[in-house]
């Protein structure tokens, strides 16, 4: 493969990544492309020139980039085109940082893991029922037989990813944990199949990535789960997960 | 006599001449009466049909006025002309604008006259003709109602106005007659009673009522008129049947919009120990059955010891084990020995001899109750709780469980969430097979407190006598059921049908003229008859119900809600509870989930996560 073709491949993957994550800040795009901010800026300029993406300063720090309707069509994604919601910028950045951190680990790549974003889950459910089902921030699917041929011990599992920037109440967090761990059906399935006694759970684990402010609540909620707590993993969000204006508590 | 016969003959001839002269109207009226008889319709339906056909008449008159510059119609003559030339279709089209409304009106009047004369027992060959006519009409009405509920989409759970549709109307008395039995949604938020024996369709009706309560509750919550709905069902029968119904209820409630439906104690637990200390003391004392007279002394001692254990300086107990640990004279003396508790310390020492007996009773009680009340879990964790109490197998245990669950619910409803200014949750407490726990569950007390708590109570029993042990309590329950009483097939409906009251009806006697021959001479008088005919209730088929409310009754063919495919992998054996509950699972975690949680160890993913995000919080670096 030529260098140009590799670059085009990387940019296509970055375009899909941006679409799945609602939008990205320029520094995260640079990290995704393994390049400098200047190279990322040039990529964004190409995308905007082709009408595939739009960019703007939505928060403090680097500009944001998101896909236009044409860009989403080019990716074959049935999402409604819109700029990232201002109230969710912090959360969107944190989820993207979590994905980038996980993708950077060899074990993730060797396991051929698939990141199924909240935007994709929401699109499957539709707007009407989205308000009733709690959606994880992402699902990570581990295929039984990865492309590398070497299956990790957890091959075949599906994980729910939860990014917690601000603490909820312990009761609410417990309820969400139970809902995630008890679910048996895919998102968008008939309601009667969502939690069916006798079927194996959809999410064998829930991975909680927390800000320092939310860690205590999540740990207390996990303790209250009793034996189910073995299926909850808690880790800190990477330092790059926060908007520049935000100071981790 | 001869003159009277002659007059009657003349009248018949006159009517026949008019009928022939207005043949199209007569034909339409005859068809209308025939259809009304066949379908068991009321005359009002024919009048409505006549009214709906008036626009056709108006258009026809307007067209006549425009084309002929006159309001005098020519089409009757033209219709006769067409008829004489054998052009039947043209004749029908020409006369229809006049004949249809007039025929429907005439048919309605004739049908009304027929019904009134049969109701007054003044028509028919014999006095018994009225009875057979009424029975026949009932069968026709049932057939029409069954046909209506069989039509897909004809009976929605909620109407466009948000009212509850229970099914198709068979017959009404004192209630408006419509095609569907429609209740305002507010009626569901009032207390209701359901009475019906085994196999009468009681569960089908209850499931529909619960689904409607949830659906209307979600609508109100979405409109910010109230908090989210919560349904707590106490199935006091237990056994395999209860679990099958629980599974059906879960599937129906999921499809109605519930997110979590918890099955207690099989899959979820609640905590008795979250009750406020004062309430906890009262509940714990009431869980133990105690007598009166001399036994009252022991009750007082028990209450004092329980109070010492619950209000001890370390705070209220958080679990059964902790509470039982405290029922020890040494523990109590030590807990209150810190100073400032002289009175309690003296009490603990004076009750020291009774404490081991009290501890033994509570240990036995909690062993029989099982872990379902030992938490963790909160009623707020689910949209609906289906609580299975083994009332058939172990009455005493079911009574204690019911008492504890109702106290937990009352505490939840009046709890801090409600006091914090949030809209209160809409709560329905449905107690099925109430007779199994009626002896020790003071449901009527809850009835009286319920309105201020925003709680609706629905009690169902197999019979009138199953509602409560004493007649006074039964009538007290029935009198406060503002939401109405649903009566299904039951052998002793008279006390309930009497609540619907009586209405005046004509009764006519006929003179016997010979063997099985009656003249048309006699007399009529007004007499009171029950609004809800108890014999009709006794003969109700499965799926039929009489809804009694506000001095009226509506006989209904209840529409069954169809749930998704069965969710239970294995059915428990009859009469035996399922496997012991896994604590801390208020929603429907699967058995495989339990296995994963308790048995098999999941592969360790710490290495991967550590590489991506660093070590877990609190773990050594």
Please characterize this protein's 3D structure.
The complex is a heterodimer of chains A (249) and B (621). Chain A has 249 residues and is an alpha/beta fold. Chain A is built from eleven helices and eight strands. Chain A has two domains: 1-84, Winged helix-like DNA-binding domain superfamily/Winged helix DNA-binding domain (Arc Repressor Mutant, subunit A); 85-249, no CATH class. In chain A, strand 2 and strand 3 (64-67) form a beta hairpin. Chain B has 621 residues and is of the alpha/beta class. Chain B has three domains: 10-119, no CATH class; 164-271 and 375-558, Rossmann fold (3-Layer(aba) Sandwich), CATH 3.40.50.300; 274-369. Chain B has helices spanning 2-21, 23-39, 43-52, 54-68, 75-84, 88-119, 129-150, 185-188, 202-222, 239-256, 277-287, 295-310, 320-326, 329-335, 342-350, 355-369, 395-413, 416-419, 443-453, 471-479, 494-499, 534-538, 591-598, 606-613; strands at residues 164-173, 180-183, 192-195, 229-235, 261-264, 384-388, 426-432, 455-461, 485-487, 502-514, 517-530, 544-549, 552-558. Chain B is elongated, with a radius of gyration of 34 Å. The N and C termini of chain B lie far apart (119 Å). Chains A and B meet through helix 5, helix 6, helix 9, helix 10 and strand 7 of A and helix 10, helix 23 and helix 24 of B.
Per CATH, what is the topology of the largest domain in chain B? Rossmann fold
The first-level CATH class name of the largest domain in chain B: Alpha Beta
Query: In angstroms, what is the radius of gyration of chain A?
Result: 18 Å
> What's the number of domains of chain B?
3
- The structure class of chain A reads alpha/beta
How big a fraction of the residues of chain B is strand? Answer: 5-15%
Known CATH architecture of the largest domain in chain B: 3-Layer(aba) Sandwich
Distance between the termini of chain A: 46 Å
User: Percent range for helical residues of chain B?
Assistant: 40-55%
